[in-house]
Q: What sequence folds into this?
């Protein structure tokens, strides 16, 4: 139905509820003659008598009673539809698909943000997907994800915007009983790992962290001896716990604990950190995504609420 028909239905419902055309006109903020014309137009359109005139008012005929019930339900639905559209335009209702790497999910920032997002915007349904940075970037480009928390800056990928969120130190994960797993209070010089067996996660799964570790080792004048690669960070720690070698992981991975694993800080001069980025399509114009970006920015920079962008 178009707007004029909805207006007629609203006028009819109001008249039946009031039982009086004058009071209905006051409630609708219109004069009585235009209201009477609306009612007559509705009866002409349907070809039936809808109202019975009484000495002191009006009441619905049998056909009018049926229309009253249906019209009231339709008007309620129309109001709900209008509000739903407005909520979607404000980024308060709809759907968002969020990706994250396994290491990103372990940093308190990500689960806390998702929990806050759900509390603030309960009308948004959320789809979560965990994968490697490369897989997440592909999903973004294919429109299968709206945003993703990744560890790689992924510079040079056309069509994507990468926004820095935070950075955390990286630490050494050592097998229990390892010669370097004793003095856990002192930062570990990176050069102390020059002749150790490394377990790293495959580069496509953690490209940013993988490259950062190799670069730091090269700055320390050695190439890491990689004896094993794992598809995900948690699997890397499992191999460390089994005594197959050591690894370097984001500090938040310590939350996993792990049997047979000792964690040590790495000396600051290694310049080893694990950044976290928010990736999204540059052409993304969804108000839901923009609201999510705003929430991320407010969590990172409460004063300005602005994230810097890398394209």
A:
């Amino acid at each position: 139905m178009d707007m004029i028909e909805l207006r007629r239905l609203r006028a009819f419902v109001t008249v039946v509820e009031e039982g009086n055309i004058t009071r209905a006109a006051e409630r609708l903020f219109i004069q009585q003659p235009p209201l009477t014309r609306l009612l007559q137009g509705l009866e002409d359109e349907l070809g039936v008598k809808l109202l019975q005139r009484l000495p002191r008012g009006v009441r619905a005929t049998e056909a009018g009673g049926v229309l009253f019930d249906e019209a009231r339900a339709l008007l309620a639905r129309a109001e709900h539809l209008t509000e739903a559209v407005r909520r979607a335009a404000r980024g308060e209702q709809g759907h968002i698909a969020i990706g994250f790497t396994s290491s990103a999910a372990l940093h308190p920032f990500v689960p806390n943000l998702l929990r806050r997002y759900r509390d603030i915007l309960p009308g948004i349904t959320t789809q979560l997907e965990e994968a490697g940075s490369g897989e997440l970037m592909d999903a973004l480009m294919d429109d299968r994800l709206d945003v993703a928390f990744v560890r790689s800056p992924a510079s040079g990928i056309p069509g994507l915007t990468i926004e820095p969120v935070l950075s955390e130190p990286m630490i050494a994960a050592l097998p229990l009983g390892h010669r370097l797993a004793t003095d856990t209070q002192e930062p570990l010089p990176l050069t102390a790992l020059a002749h150790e067996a490394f377990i790293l996660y495959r580069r496509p799964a953690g490209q940013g962290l993988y490259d950062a570790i190799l670069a730091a080792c090269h700055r320390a004048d050695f190439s890491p001896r990689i004896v094993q690669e794992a598809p995900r960070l948690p699997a890397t720690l499992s191999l460390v716990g089994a005594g197959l070698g050591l690894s370097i992981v984001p500090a938040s991975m310590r939350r996993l604990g792990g049997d047979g694993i000792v964690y040590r800080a790495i000396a600051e001069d290694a310049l080893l950190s694990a950044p976290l980025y928010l990736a999204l399509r540059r052409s993304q114009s969804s108000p839901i995504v923009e609201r999510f970006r705003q929430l991320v920015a407010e969590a990172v920079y409460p004063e300005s609420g602005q994230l810097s962008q890398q394209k």
About this structure: The longest helix spans residues 62-89.
